[in-house]
Specification:
single chain, 139 residues, alpha+beta, Jelly Rolls, five-stranded antiparallel beta sheet, 8 strands
């Protein structure tokens, strides 16, 4: 049984849904040695999230962003407003989507579906760099 863990620092991105599958694969050294396993990806922030979704049509990330902006409006009468009007809606979106994803590993690669990719969901206008903890287990 192998356990590996590393931290991945993502460069700042604008608000939206950003495909990061290739960055995760490049950062997770040792995955190619596994016959079977799991990769757990955790984001260490409360105003961004992680999601697995369609990676083929560029309309999907735009539509997801539009839908979540309708669900968590910036003009809602939030009490937590000290960090700007995009902060509390970012926390709401991050709570809804989640802070981690787990992907099966088979024969050294991610077992994502044909049209699936891992997304960084950046909910702030200027969220800054984001840190992910990648934990790999398998044999």
């Amino acid at each position: 049984m192998v356990w590996l863990q590393t931290e991945l620092r993502l460069e700042p991105r604008r608000r939206g849904f950003h495909l990061i599958t290739s960055e995760i694969e490049a950062a997770m050294k040792g995955m190619e040695r596994l016959r079977v396993g799991l990769l757990h990806v955790f984001i260490q922030h409360t105003s961004a999230s992680l999601s697995i979704n369609e990676n083929a049509d560029p309309d999907v990330p735009r539509d997801l962003e539009m839908a979540f902006n309708q669900i968590a409006h910036e003009d809602f009468p939030y009490v937590h407003t000290m960090e700007g009007p995009d902060d509390m809606p970012a926390h709401v979106k991050a709570s809804m989507i989640g802070s981690s994803v787990t992907v099966p590993i088979r024969d050294g690669g991610l077992c994502l579906g044909t049209w699936q990719g891992i997304y960084l969901c950046e909910h702030r206008d200027r969220g800054g760099p984001r840190r992910l903890v990648l934990t790999l287990q398998g044999e």
